Fold this protein.
Amino acid sequence: MTTMPSYEEYGKHDPILPDPVDTSNAELPIDVETRLDLYRLQQEIRLFEKRAYDLFLRGLVKGTSHLSLGQEAIAAGFGAAMRHDDWTFATYRGHAHTLARRVPMAPVLAELLGRANGLLGGKGGSMHLTSVEHGVMGSYAIIGAHLCVANGAAWTSQYNKTGQVAVAFFGDGTTNIGAFHEAVNFASVWNLPTVFVCENNLYMEYTSIGQVSPVLNPAADRAAAYGLESIVVDGNDADAVYTVASTALDRARNGGGPSLIEAKTYRHGGHSRADPGKYRPDEEVDAWMDRDPIPMYHQRLLGLGVDEGRLSAIATQTAAAVETATQEAIDGPLPDLAAIYTDVWADGGWQWRN
């Protein structure tokens, strides 16, 4: 008879170590200006997220927050590859994807602080960032719900022949949610221009995805069931992500249908700011920290002949922009009490159903 593990033993597992760096990705046909843009985007996301963490510790961020420290290459790679009128659908870990679509830092940071000059007037906070103007169609706290919404947007593109693509980002835990399977199945049957991107950071919340999934790659290994190619990419390598994203976007834009991409990555901290992440083995954390996407990309650019001065200038400019955004956010007024009556359904009547 099989003996079930105790509660204390259940969370224990062997360290999940990263694969070696694929040095051949340095030879990918990506021009220098695009690579510098990828570097800038990663720097902006990293420094923004660090500042968000600092402001949270100061008690200025309203509610909790879910950071993408360590996962910047995925948002940057897709942000650089997407067309300006494509659509992004993110999870509650959506700061990175919002910034990657070129939304200015100041209103995003002000939104985290609940200020009137925030992206949503202070009403959405960290977990509901939205900017239709920039193609950011919402950050969703209901696991998997936005995958179906992304299909709706993709269908409008197919119907109107606009060439727009809906890109839906989600975590590894979502692959065990019914909405994931329904959305991928629907997109495949209807041949929709939807790109599904699993940001597999190896943990759902406090549980390793490997403990609750029967396959090694929880997204990619299920792709065949929906007639799709199994695609796994190094989510810590911005060049690899950008290349895979460009291919999937072009395919969707030209009538080739959806893609399901699994990007392997690792979050530097816990699930949210309330989580110290102590359930992860030290050996595993150390190994993945050595695969930090930004220092790795920095070294690649130097190896490709980019001058250190250009990279230092990008880092300096980004740090200054974060300081300016921080001050603008902190100086922003609190929302007027009258704002509570805006952007809501006021009369509650039955007419809205029609």
